[in-house]
Amino acid sequence: MKSLATVCGQLRDERTAIRDMKQVFKLMDKDGDGFVNIDEFLYTLALVGLKELVSPAEAKAAFAVIDKDQSGAMDMDEFLQLMRLRTEITSSSDEMIRAFETLSVGTASKGLGRGEAHMSKIREWLELYRPQDAKLSTNHVMNMLELCKSDTKAGVTNFIEFIDMNS
Fold first, then answer.
1. Phi first, then psi: what are they for 113, rounded to 5°?
2. Confidence check: pLDDT of 11 > 80
3. Which of 24, 31, 37, 132 is deepest in the core (most CB within 10 A)?
4. Dihedrals phi, psi of 165, to nearest 5 degrees
């Protein structure tokens, strides 16, 4: 059974997350009418760098799914439902760490701790084995891994620290 302190902490975290999501929604709602239309949605995708990864047709299809009442605009409730769904389908930390460790075998992690890998070795692996139809380029992946580079070891990324900070 959870303690009262644990439950209160979870409620506080959820309130903070909802407040943050409302701020994101306001940023997306460029005209301030309380709704995000398809143009604002497409603009947001481009703004966050997803324009190259998601075709306009895919974005419009996704928007149609999000727009539950088919009003042509996403309201705050629909946005919050989307964010909750995104959280539910996100891989667990353990799954992401196992995937990273699969990527960083052999010389990529030689002499390093768990979750650490040499950035140059990961780049070599990606350039050699990345599928031709992969949505993310090697540079995109490396830019994401750059976010979790070690402060103490040059050229090393620590994926576990990144997961811990973002979970």
1. -80, 175
2. no
3. 37
4. -70, -30
